[in-house]
Write a structure and sequence with these properties.
This protein has 7 helices and no strands. The protein is an all-alpha fold. It folds into 2 domains: 85 residues; 78 residues, Winged helix-like DNA-binding domain superfamily/Winged helix DNA-binding domain (Arc Repressor Mutant, subunit A, Orthogonal Bundle).
Length: 165
């Protein structure tokens, strides 16, 4: 399948402007190989550009593909490893650094305990700073679903972190 010169240039510009953000998205969703995920998402856009009805949907397609690839990769790794991996924090010398690292570990552990859809919505909304409409487009769900999913995730995180305090 041949990509037109205009589409090829549009894909190049999209790649230049959004590759790092796509790598961050995959990393924040827990991918152990976020650059590979981002690269594959852009490769699939290039491969399936004819499926897009609107050129403006290309970024949403890349984000959704990155989310799907990350989810598939994590599922595969869970099967291979049979237990989910936990991050190990390196011991720090200063008490403030240790306490800060513990808070971050608690937060990340609480985020990991959220259902996948809630975790995806939070990462897209707050770490990538997407609007609710952009999150809805990336996850292919209605805006109301995104709002309720984020609300539930925030409530679950608050309750989880309150237990630790």
């Amino acid at each position: 399948m041949r990509v037109s010169a205009g589409a090829g240039e549009a894909h190049r510009v999209l790649f230049v402007h959004h590759f790092r953000a796509t790598v961050r998205l995959a990393a924040l969703l827990g991918a152990d190989d976020p650059e590979d995920i981002a690269q594959e998402a852009f490769a699939r856009l290039h491969q399936h550009h004819a499926r897009l009805h609107e050129p403006a949907a290309a970024l949403a397609y890349v984000r959704r593909t990155a989310v799907n690839l990350t989810t598939s990769r994590l599922r595969h790794l869970r099967v291979v490893r049979r237990t989910p991996g936990e991050s190990s924090a390196a011991p720090a010398s200063a008490e403030e650094v240790v306490l800060a690292a513990e808070r971050v570990d608690h937060l990340l552990a609480a985020v990991r305990r959220l259902p996948v859809r809630q975790r995806q919505a939070l990462v897209l909304r707050y770490w990538l700073d997407l609007s609710v409409a952009e999150v809805a487009e990336a996850l292919q769900v209605p805006i109301g679903t995104v709002k309720s999913t984020i609300s539930r995730a925030q409530s679950a995180l608050a309750a989880d972190l309150e237990e630790l305090a």
